[in-house]
Design a protein that fits this description.
The protein has 264 residues and is an alpha/beta fold. It contains ten helices and five strands. It has a five-stranded mixed sheet, with helices on both faces. β2 and β3 form a beta hairpin.
Length: 264
C-alpha cells in the first residue's frame, strides 16, 4: 500500500480507489510491476542435496536424538569473527524525553574471534574470546572443554568443516602422546557443507548477536567481559535448546530429494 500511495501522490489530480490496481502510462499494472523486486534479496545457505549431504545431515540429526547420558555429552561448537568498533564522535546519552544519539561514523580497532560451545540438553556453555582464530586457539579451547568433562567416556562434538577443526591441530602444539589422547576424547560429527544451520551453536550466536554484540565495542578486554557476562546470565537462566528437526521430519519434508538421488 505504501508504494501505491506514493505513486498516486506523484500524479496531480489522479483519483483512484484503494485496493484497485493502478495502471501506469505503459499499460502495466503496478501490482504486476511490484511482483518482482530485484532490489530486495535474502541470504540463504544454498546447498546441493546429494547423497553425501543427506547422509551427513542424518548423522547430525541422529546425534541430536540421543537420550541424555552424562558419560557421553553432546555439544555443539562454532566460532565467529567479531570486529572491534568504536565511536569517532562521543555519543549523546538519553535523557527524559530525548533518545540517545550516535553518530553514523565509526572507527575500526581490529578484529577478534568468539569460540563457543553449548550442551543443548543441559544449557551448559563455554566461551573463549581471542584476538584471532587459528589452530592454536582451537586446541586450547578443546583442552578446556575436555577438562570440563573429566568423567565423560567421550565427548561428541558437532561442528563444521573449517580446516582447523580437526585433531591434526593438536599435533602442532602438543606432544604426540598428549595429542593422541586428546583426539580419543572426542567424537567429531561434521555438518554438511552449506548446512551450518544444522549446528545448534548457530542458535547461540544468533542470540549473542541480538542481545550482546549489536553495539559498538572497541577493545578486546571489554568484548571478552561482555560476552562472558552474557554467557553467565544465560546459563543462570537455565536456557536450553529444544531441537525439533529430526531424521523422520527430514525424510517427510525432503522426500522428493531422497527419491531423486536413488539409482533406479
Amino acid at each position: 500500500m505504501q508504494l501505491l500511495r506514493y505513486s498516486l501522490a506523484g500524479r496531480e489530480g489522479c483519483r483512484a480507489e484503494l485496493g484497485r490496481p493502478h495502471r501506469s502510462v505503459d499499460g502495466v499494472l503496478h501490482s504486476e510491476k511490484n511482483a518482482v523486486q530485484p532490489h530486495r534479496k535474502r541470504q540463504w545457505c544454498i546447498a546441493h542435496l546429494t547423497a553425501n549431504f543427506l547422509c551427513e545431515m542424518e548423522r547430525v540429526l541422529d546425534v541430536y536424538s540421543r537420550p541424555y547420558d552424562d558419560r557421553f555429552p553432546v555439544l555443539c561448537f562454532d566460532e565467529q569473527p567479531c570486529f572491534l568498533i568504536g565511536d569517532v564522535m562521543a555519543p549523546v546519552p538519553s535523557e527524559p524525553g530525548r533518545v540517545a544519539k550516535q553518530d553514523y561514523e565509526y572507527q575500526r580497532f581490529g578484529s577478534a574471534a568468539v569460540l563457543l560451545a553449548v550442551e543443548p540438553k543441559t544449557g551448559r556453555r563455554f566461551v573463549q574470546v581471542c584476538a584471532r582464530r587459528t589452530a592454536e586457539e582451537y586446541t586450547a579451547f578443546m583442552q578446556n572443554l575436555e577438562r570440563a568433562y573429566p568423567a565423560a567416556v567421550q565427548i561428541t562434538l558437532v561442528q563444521d568443516h573449517l580446516n582447523t577443526h580437526h585433531g591434526g591441530s593438536f599435533y602442532k602444539f602438543m606432544s604426540p602422546q598428549a595429542a593422541h589422547r586428546l583426539v580419543g576424547r572426542f567424537e567429531w560429527v561434521y555438518t554438511p557443507k552449506h548446512a551450518s544451520w544444522l549446528n545448534m551453536a548457530e542458535l547461540e550466536f544468533s542470540a549473542l548477536q541480538r542481545q550482546c554484540l549489536n553495539r559498538r565495542i572497541p577493545v578486546l578486554e571489554r568484548l571478552r567481559s561482555e560476552v562472558e557476562a552474557w554467557v553467565a546470565a544465560r546459563s543462570r537462566a537455565g536456557v536450553t535448546l529444544n531441537w525439533q528437526f529430526s531424521t523422520q521430519v527430514a525424510r517427510r519434508t525432503l522426500g522428493r530429494h531422497y527419491e531423486a538421488i536413488r539409482i533406479k
